[in-house]
Every structure is written in structure tokens, then in C-alpha cells.
Amino acid sequence: MKKVRGKFQEGQSLIEVIIALAIASLVAVGLVRATTVSIKGSRYSIDQSKITALAQKQIATIVDYRNSNPGDFWEGNYYPLDFNRQDDTIPGYCLLTTVIDATLTPGLLPTTTPDYANAKIAWINVKVFWDEKGSGTQCAGKDYNHSLSFDTYVTN
After folding, report:
1. Cα–Cα distance between 127 and 139 in angstroms, integer?
2. Are 127 and 85 in contact (CB under 8 A)?
3. I need a labelling partner for 2 at 20 to 30 A (CA). Which of 15, 22, 54, 138 fits?
4. Are 124 and 153 in contact (CB under 8 A)?
5. Sign for the pseudo-dihedral over CA of 95, 100, 105, 107
6. Taking the CB of residue 128, how many other CB atoms lie within 10 A of it?
7. Stretch 44-58: mean pLDDT
8. Bridge partners of residue 97, in order along the sequence
9. Hey, how many other C-beta atoms are within 10 angstroms of the C-beta on 96?
10. CA 75/CA 20 separation, integer angstroms
11. Cα-flanking dihedrals φ and ψ of residue 8, to 5°?
């Protein structure tokens, strides 16, 4: 404390106040940044859950069709083998579904497969895009910030 005209001066100097405010500001900026990152991560997780459900539904539709109409499926009547479909009817998402006859792909069917000579295998791929950027070429004439791909195989 300094003595000024017979009184003691109490309190903080201007420099001390400025330093304290600077430190408090840095802490506040750090907390805001951490909160922002956390919110983005939560949103991304929610999006991943939604798109996983969309992809599972699309794959289940194809597999159900294969189970109930095996002749039509393997003849390519409903989901033609070597088929590509782009669906952007769900707001904010685009599904690119591909079904390919993978029977001739070496190594996919083990030679121990029963009735190997008549065995067939199809590859189903569903790629889900979300968070649209604008026009482009990724799916249905648009580009997206994020995508995940889901694969499965079905046999006869």
C-alpha cells in the first residue's frame, strides 16, 4: 500500500486489472471453443445414427426383395444387377445405391460353397451423403460435405 496525503491507497492498479481481464478473456475463449467442438461432435454423431438407419433400411429392402422374389432378383427384374440409383427424396440426405453381380469376382465365393457351380453372389453398396455444399457430381447433381459407405453381400 502506498501512502497518499495521509491516507493509504487500497485496490488494484490499472495494470493488474488489465492482466486479470486478459486472463479471464483467454479462459472464456477456451470454454467457448470447447463447447463449439462438443456441439459439432454431437451433431455429427446424431447424423451418423440417422444415416446408418437410412442405409440399413435400404439394404433391408433389397435383401427382403431377394428373399421373397429370388428368381426376379437374380434375373435383375427389380434391382437390376449392375444397377446404380440416386435418391435425394429425403431432405438433407442423398442415397446412392449400387447392386452388382459379384459372382465372377475371384475369391468372394469359397470353393467349398454348396452347389458351387450354380452359386451366385451380389454386392450391395449404399453410400449416404449429407450436409449439402451445392451443385456437383457426388449424388443427384449435388456435392456434400460428408458421406459414409455401407456394404453387404447376398447369395442365392
Report:
1. 9
2. no
3. 22
4. yes
5. positive
6. 27
7. 88
8. 85, 126
9. 20
10. 76
11. -90, 135
